[in-house]
Amino acid sequence: MRIYFIRPGETEFSKQGKIQGMFNSPLTEKGVASAQAKGIMMQNYGIDIIVSSTIVDASSTAEIIGQYTGITPLFSKRINEMHFGEWTGMSLSEVELSRPLEYMHWKMSKYDFIIPCGDSYQTVEMRSRTLVDNVMERLEDRAAIISGEHVAKTMLGYLLDMPKEDMIRIRQPYDIIYFIDTMYQRYGYLNLKNGITMCDELITAD
Question: Does residue 204 belong to any structural domain of this protein?
C-alpha cells in the first residue's frame, strides 16, 4: 500500500503569518491553485481513496482533488490539525513576547507540552494514528490523506517509527507531497515545483 500525505495550500491566516490550527481559514487564490496542481498530479498516481480533515482548508483541497480524480473524499476529525488554543490567530513572535513562559516550555518539550486550551503533539498522535491504522486495514492500494502539517508529522512519525524529536523536525512546504510505500518499505516526497521524486528523504528543520 502507498499513502500520500498532502498539505493544504496557503490560507488567509497563513498568508498573514497567523497560527491557524483548527480555525477555519479559507484557501487564498494561491491555495486553490496549489490544490488544483495536486489534483492534476494525483490523477497520475492512481489513488483509490481520499481521506481529509474536516478543517475548511483541507476539505476544500480534498474536494478539488476529488474533482480531478473522480473520487468522493471521506472526512474525519481524527486528522484535524493541531489545536493551538489560546495561541490561535497570533504569530509565533507574538506568543514569544506575550507568553514567554509558555513559549519556553513549548520549545523545550514540544511533544508533551499542551498549549493552553489546545493540543500537544502527543494528543494529536493519539487520535491520528487510529485513522492511519484504519486506512492501512482497507483493501485499497493507494490512499491520499489531506491534513495540516503538524498532524501529518505525527502520522509520518508513527508509520516510520521515528524518535519523537526527529518527528517534530519534519517540515512539509505547500508544494511537497510525502509518501510511504508499506509493501516496499520506501518513503520520500514528490516536489510539485520541479516534478522530482526524492526517495528515503524527508525535509527537516535545522
Answer: no
Chain-centroid distance of CA 58 in Å reads: 9
**DSSP character string of 148-166:** -HHHHHHHHHHHTT--HHH
What CA–CA distances, in Å, run from 2 to 55, 82, 185? 24, 24, 10
Grid cell locating 70:
473522480
Confidence (pTM):
0.95
Rounded distance between C-alpha atoms, residue 29 and residue 11, angstroms:
9
Does 206 fall in a domain? no
> Domain span at residue 7?
2-199
Give dist(CA 49, CA 198) in Å, integer: 23
**How far is 10 from 115, CA to CA, in rounded Å?**
23
Q: Reduced to 3 states, what is the DSSP secondary structure of residue 198?
A: strand
Say if 205 falls within a structural domain.
Answer: no
- Tell me whether residue 76 is in a domain: yes
Rounded CA separation 131/172 (Å): 20
Whose cell is 508499506? That residue is 182
Each residue's pLDDT tens digit, 29-44: 999 999 999 999 999 8
